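Take a look at the protein record below with the fold in mind.
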Amino acid sequence: MMLREKLLLKDKPSSAIVAVRDLDRARKFYAETLGLEREGGGEEEMIAFRTGDTTMTVYESEFAGTNKANAVTWNAGDDFDEIVGQLKEQGIAFEQYPDLGMEISGGVHRSGEFKGVWFKDPDGNILHIGNV
């Protein structure tokens, strides 16, 4: 009897999906403010954006912004400081979480080699960028 290999998700790509209340406002924020490129056709109920090798989808929902945890996380690597600077120029306000026990300067949280920022989209979804 041949053993069947387990079907696991470790080798499968994943993507983020974010609920928003106003699709037009989200389109403007994610495309113009964050610089994401739209992917795919013209669905009216959702918009897909390319982000690295993955896709992030936004869709309309009455429950938008109710999550109190990270909705999307990006690893900016060595481009962290440049990206954070560009976001500041775009008027993004960074959240501050002193309970994390990290040093916070200019909205950037630091702990050892780690640097990270958190900010919200227009619907209150928490977005995170880190350098690792």
